[in-house]
């Protein structure tokens, strides 16, 4: 079977998806361990039986809406490649907007403490560790599986991070100058109908009946977690904005809502 024949078959198998051509070409390039451009430029090249079999099996999984990132074990985040598999949430572009907000407000030679709460693949912690090499970076997660992936990603980039297992900021032993968190904020029944989301670990995207349990618990604990001048950057679902601001009105926090690149209120910036 040639590359062209396999791609023609894959385009048909994936025709019900949003980007069948792109997905098929990424899968084939992944199996051949070549760039996507190679696949497009060598359409007459023959595939071995093993390569064709591997491609067809991944195409069948993609046809079932399994995310491409789980098929290739790669996801780009802030210009770097992160290893991902079904043990972790797949990093999202909206979270890159949170990183941008932190980078705008914190100098590169920052020497304080930074915590990433609910680190998952470690994408936030690794990005911040590389951006702020003089800072002390901590990352927590309640999931052993997630921490194993995060440690792997940190090693890949030689990022110096103290990983701690536990709920929210519980394992942190000293005050943090910056807290960043993309905690689960979804709910059952109606949060999303995107079938790809459901391939991720439920603990990474569901948080109580309104998606706000983890976020509220963290906000309540922030006064003890943050240093005197500390601040927190917290990602949320834009549909939760009004509920969250009503909740905050009953607290003593000073807060700002920051927008994502799509123009939605998406990040909460809190100070004590
Ligand atoms: C939406 S994922 C975010 C992962 C990663 N930070 C990212 O942005 O891609 C949420 C992460 O929070 C973790 N988590 C859920 N509840 C937690 C809790 N109470 N304490 C710490 N981590 C928690 C999950 O295991 C998951 O890895």
Walk me through what this model shows:
This protein has 272 residues and is of the alpha/beta class. It has 2 domains: 3-64, Ubiquitin-associated (UBA) domain (Helicase, Ruva Protein, domain 3); 77-271, 3-Layer(aba) Sandwich (Rossmann fold). 39% of the residues lie in helices and 19% in strands. The chain is built from 10 helices and 9 strands. It has helices at 3-13, 20-32, 36-41, 49-63, 68-72, 93-105, 123-131, 144-156, 213-225, 241-249; strands at 74-77, 80-83, 113-117, 136-141, 161-165, 176-181, 226-235, 254-259, 265-271. The strands form 2 sheets. The protein has a 7-stranded mixed β-sheet, sandwiched between helices. The chain has a two-stranded antiparallel ribbon with strand order 1-2. A hairpin with a 2-residue loop joins strand 1 and strand 2. Helix 1 crosses helix 2 (20-32) and helix 2 (20-32) packs antiparallel against helix 4 (49-63). The radius of gyration is 21 Å and the shape is elongated. The site of S-adenosylmethionine (SAM) has 24 residues, from helix 7 and strand 4. The site of S-adenosylmethionine has 24 residues, from helix 7 and strand 4.
């Amino acid at each position: 079977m040639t590359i062209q024949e396999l791609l023609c078959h894959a385009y048909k198998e994936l025709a019900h998806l949003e980007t069948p051509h792109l997905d098929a070409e990424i899968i084939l390039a992944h199996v051949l361990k070549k760039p996507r451009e190679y696949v497009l430029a060598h359409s007459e090249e023959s595939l071995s039986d093993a390569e064709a079999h591997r491609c067809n099996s991944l195409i069948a999984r993609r046809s079932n809406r399994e995310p491409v990132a789980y098929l290739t074990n790669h996801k780009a985040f802030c210009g770097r490649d992160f290893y991902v598999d079904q043990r972790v949430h797949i990093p999202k572009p909206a979270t890159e907007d949170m990183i941008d907000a932190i980078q705008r407000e914190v100098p590169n030679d920052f020497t304080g403490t930074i915590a990433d709460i609910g680190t998952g693949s470690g994408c936030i912690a690794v990005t911040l560790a590389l951006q702020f090499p003089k800072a002390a970076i901590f990352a927590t997660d309640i999931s052993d599986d997630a921490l194993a992936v995060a440690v792997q990603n940190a090693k890949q980039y030689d990022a110096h991070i103290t990983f701690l297992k536990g709920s929210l900021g519980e394992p942190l032993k000293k005050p943090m100058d910056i807290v960043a968190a993309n905690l689960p904020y979804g709910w059952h029944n109606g949060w999303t109908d995107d079938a790809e989301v459901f391939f991720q670990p439920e603990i990474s995207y569901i948080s109580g009946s309104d998606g706000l349990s983890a976020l509220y618990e963290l906000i309540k604990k922030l006064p003890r977690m943050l240093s005197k001048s500390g601040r927190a950057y917290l990602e949320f679902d834009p549909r939760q904005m009004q509920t969250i601001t009503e909740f905050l009105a009953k607290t003593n926090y000073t807060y700002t809502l920051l927008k994502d690149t799509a123009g939605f209120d998406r990040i909460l910036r809190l100070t004590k």
